[in-house]
Amino acid sequence: MLKGKTAVVGVCGGIAAYKAVEVVSRLKKLGLDVNVIMTKNAAEFVDSLTFRSISNNPVTIGMFDEPQYWDIGHISLANKADFIVVVPATANIIGKVAGGIADDMLSTTIMATRVPVIFVPAMNHNMYENPIVQSNIEKLKNLGYVFMEPASGLMACGTKGKGRLPEPSDIVKFIVDFFESENAGINELKNTNVKKDLKDLSILVTAGPTREAIDPVRYITNRSSGKMGYAIAECALKRGAKVKIVSGPVNIPVPSGAEVENVISAREMYQKVMESYKDYDVLVMVAAVADYRCEEISQKKIKKSQEEMTIKLVKNPDIAKELGKVKDNRILVGFSAETDDVEKNALEKLQSKNMDMIVANDVTQEGAGFSTDTNIVKIIKGKEYIKSFPIMDKTKVADVILDEILLIRSTKGC
């Protein structure tokens, strides 16, 4: 769909600038005409010749560089681009654009364009979480600029947190998905068909599995892929909701517009959810959280020795149950993956955890298990309210669940 389009890739001065080389390469392979603008600081990390060789186009750095064509540089690039992607987007460029400052070629081109501008932030996690930076990001989002969530993990500075540049393959997929959704009429700015019936709601979704460490090499986990939770988040966003995902380890791109907190263990997920739930109207607990963890975690790899080995497990906190105690007027939705007595077990969970609704499925049914793109669910709100649905794509299941949440909201008078 993007073949023949023109992309302007803005590269800022951060250690992650080297990853922009692969982004340019991947965009070229999709058939785009790629033009690179580097800040002067970016040129300290990656030589412009690298980008010129891969893009087969001149690379622009300074405002007063000798022009390659007889045209005003920033106006020429701003007019010819079908989109601009800034990768890595530093706190500096985000702050400049948010403040209306145009003092170099990249910020000037962004100011002069009318096409979509996609920022892919990358910076130290403390800098990313700084309230000034977050305020600038929120301001630009409200003005129509697009942001891809940064990844979490080990930073070049040696610390861990949210602020890593996503992998180039994920960045390019994000760009493709953005324009596919826009082309299909799903993008919020152009879509008039999708109902915006959740625009007044904020929804917290947990998704994916958790991992409980045994030693530095091994862990206990389950088969959850996170597809159902991410489908709910994406559908809620399209219908106008504010969405946050607390996600275990998954291999799924974050839906555009969602905030995400990445966690590993059940206790980490519990902590993030309990820190956040008060800011949300609806709590949808889709994650397959490990019920137990190792009482002791070996700091070294456990060597194979005896024929048998015993690992002592202790209970993890029950996130949904704890939310049921403090939810007040919030809507709490749970999930119940079962292999037998589906309705009986789901009803017990619904009542014992003070949920408003539970979505149950028999994971032994074909098309209803983990890692599939489909699901077969029952929606249960009590003994007198059990709805069974046929096999459906998880996106359709997500919309059904959101419709049922709206019914609960109307009866609660929320």
From TrEMBL:
<feature type="binding site">
    <location>
        <position position="301"/>
    </location>
    <ligand>
        <name>CTP</name>
    </ligand>
</feature>
<feature type="active site" description="Proton donor">
    <location>
        <position position="157"/>
    </location>
</feature>
<comment type="pathway">
    <text>Cofactor biosynthesis; coenzyme A biosynthesis; CoA from (R)-pantothenate: step 3/5.</text>
</comment>
<keyword id="KW-0210">Decarboxylase</keyword>
<keyword id="KW-0460">Magnesium</keyword>
<feature type="binding site">
    <location>
        <position position="335"/>
    </location>
    <ligand>
        <name>CTP</name>
    </ligand>
</feature>
<dbReference type="InterPro" id="IPR007085">
    <property type="entry name" value="DNA/pantothenate-metab_flavo_C"/>
</dbReference>
<comment type="function">
    <text>Catalyzes two sequential steps in the biosynthesis of coenzyme A. In the first step cysteine is conjugated to 4'-phosphopantothenate to form 4-phosphopantothenoylcysteine. In the second step the latter compound is decarboxylated to form 4'-phosphopantotheine.</text>
</comment>
<dbReference type="InterPro" id="IPR005252">
    <property type="entry name" value="CoaBC"/>
</dbReference>
<keyword id="KW-0436">Ligase</keyword>
<feature type="binding site">
    <location>
        <position position="349"/>
    </location>
    <ligand>
        <name>CTP</name>
    </ligand>
</feature>
<keyword id="KW-0288">FMN</keyword>
<dbReference type="GO" id="GO:0004632">
    <property type="term" value="F:phosphopantothenate--cysteine ligase activity"/>
</dbReference>
<comment type="function">
    <text>Catalyzes two steps in the biosynthesis of coenzyme A. In the first step cysteine is conjugated to 4'-phosphopantothenate to form 4-phosphopantothenoylcysteine, in the latter compound is decarboxylated to form 4'-phosphopantotheine.</text>
</comment>
<comment type="pathway">
    <text>Cofactor biosynthesis; coenzyme A biosynthesis; CoA from (R)-pantothenate: step 2/5.</text>
</comment>
<protein>
    <recommendedName>
        <fullName>Coenzyme A biosynthesis bifunctional protein CoaBC</fullName>
        <ecNumber>4.1.1.36</ecNumber>
        <ecNumber>6.3.2.5</ecNumber>
    </recommendedName>
</protein>
<feature type="region of interest" description="Phosphopantothenate--cysteine ligase">
    <location>
        <begin position="203"/>
        <end position="414"/>
    </location>
</feature>
<comment type="similarity">
    <text>In the N-terminal section; belongs to the HFCD (homo-oligomeric flavin containing Cys decarboxylase) superfamily.</text>
</comment>
<feature type="binding site">
    <location>
        <position position="291"/>
    </location>
    <ligand>
        <name>CTP</name>
    </ligand>
</feature>
<dbReference type="GO" id="GO:0015937">
    <property type="term" value="P:coenzyme A biosynthetic process"/>
</dbReference>
<dbReference type="GO" id="GO:0046872">
    <property type="term" value="F:metal ion binding"/>
</dbReference>
<comment type="similarity">
    <text>In the C-terminal section; belongs to the PPC synthetase family.</text>
</comment>
<dbReference type="InterPro" id="IPR036551">
    <property type="entry name" value="Flavin_trans-like"/>
</dbReference>
<dbReference type="Pfam" id="PF04127">
    <property type="entry name" value="DFP"/>
</dbReference>
<keyword id="KW-0456">Lyase</keyword>
<keyword id="KW-0479">Metal-binding</keyword>
<dbReference type="InterPro" id="IPR003382">
    <property type="entry name" value="Flavoprotein"/>
</dbReference>
<dbReference type="GO" id="GO:0071513">
    <property type="term" value="C:phosphopantothenoylcysteine decarboxylase complex"/>
</dbReference>
<feature type="domain" description="DNA/pantothenate metabolism flavoprotein C-terminal">
    <location>
        <begin position="198"/>
        <end position="406"/>
    </location>
</feature>
<keyword id="KW-0511">Multifunctional enzyme</keyword>
<feature type="region of interest" description="Phosphopantothenoylcysteine decarboxylase">
    <location>
        <begin position="1"/>
        <end position="202"/>
    </location>
</feature>
<dbReference type="Pfam" id="PF02441">
    <property type="entry name" value="Flavoprotein"/>
</dbReference>
<feature type="binding site">
    <location>
        <position position="353"/>
    </location>
    <ligand>
        <name>CTP</name>
    </ligand>
</feature>
<dbReference type="GO" id="GO:0015941">
    <property type="term" value="P:pantothenate catabolic process"/>
</dbReference>
<dbReference type="GO" id="GO:0010181">
    <property type="term" value="F:FMN binding"/>
</dbReference>
<feature type="domain" description="Flavoprotein">
    <location>
        <begin position="6"/>
        <end position="178"/>
    </location>
</feature>
<keyword id="KW-0285">Flavoprotein</keyword>
<dbReference type="InterPro" id="IPR035929">
    <property type="entry name" value="CoaB-like_sf"/>
</dbReference>
<dbReference type="GO" id="GO:0004633">
    <property type="term" value="F:phosphopantothenoylcysteine decarboxylase activity"/>
</dbReference>
